[in-house]
Amino acid sequence: MNRLLIIITFLSSFSALGQDSLSLKKAIEIGLQKNFDIQLTQKNVAINQIMNSWGEAGSLPQININVGQNNSISDQRNNPISFAPYLFQSSDVSGNLALNWTIFNGFGIQANKNKLEQLQIQSENTATLAIENTIHGIILSYYQAKMQKEQLNLIFNLIQLSKEKYDQQVLKSNLGVG
């Protein structure tokens, strides 16, 4: 019994010295900063804010520019079959410019814009939900750890009381009273 008490006291003194107390506010701050789910949902919110534009919905004109160049060299100087024993070089440059502008597509542009707005709202709500769930989990874990610490203190107190009661019984037994 005494050995167990000494071991528990010895181990608890190391754990008490090695740890700093953590407030609930600080635990929530750390949890919100380090949570990857929150970081991911915040990136999705930023992406959906950028995507929620009239250009993505199809209202603005689209301009496509293509430029290409082809070069070829044909060396016929060492070819005995060729009628023209020369070095031929050719270059070709081509360009293309296209402008597409949808004037009316049966209110599809407005439907696309509404869809993009709904996606932005959905991503914002998902981010809020992720933050709330993280805070909820941190608070539960924090108070569960506090409760377990109190239970550990209670067990230490019970061990101390049991030791005192045992010492009293040993003393009574030695005196011949009990």
Relevant terms:
16% strand, elongated, 5 helices, 2 domains, alpha+beta, two-stranded antiparallel ribbon, 178 residues
What would a concise description of this structure say?
This protein is an alpha+beta fold and 178 residues long. 65% of the residues lie in helices and 16% in strands. Helix 2 crosses helix 5 (108-175) and helix 3 packs antiparallel against helix 5 (108-175).
Strand order in space, largest sheet: 1-2
Give the strand content.
15-25%
Order of helices and strands: HHHHEEH
Give the averaged pLDDT, no decimals. Answer: 87
Structural class: alpha+beta
What is the total number of structural domains? 2
Secondary structure tally, helices = 5
- Major sheet attributes: 2 strands, antiparallel
Number of strands: 2
- Distance from N terminus to C terminus (CA atoms, Å) equals 21 Å
Report the principal-axis shape.
Answer: elongated
Helix content: 55-70%
What do these coordinates show?
The chain is an alpha+beta fold. The protein folds into two domains: 130 residues, no CATH class; 39 residues, no CATH class. α3 runs antiparallel to α5.
